[in-house]
Amino acid sequence: MRRRRLQPQGESFGLSLADVLTTALGCVLLLFLAAMLLIKRTLNDELTEHAATRVRLEAQAEGRRQAEEARRDERGQRTAIEQTLSAEQKAHAEAMQRIQELETRLAGTTSELERSRAAEAEASQRYRGLHDAARTAAQELDPRTASPVDVVMVVDGTRSMLPSLDATRHNLISTVQALRVVSPTARVGVVVFRDKREPARLRLESHSLTSDERALAKFLQGIEATSTEADDDLPEWLCGGISAAVDASWRPEAIKLMIVVSDAGAQEPKDECSQAAARFAKEGGRIYMLSNEPKGFRERGMERLRKHYKDEVLPLHARIAKEGRGLHVKGANADALLTEVLRAAFRSRTETPLDALKQAVEAGGAPAEPEPPVEP
Question: What's the CATH superfamily of 142-362?
Answer without folding.
Answer: von Willebrand factor, type A domain (3.40.50.410)
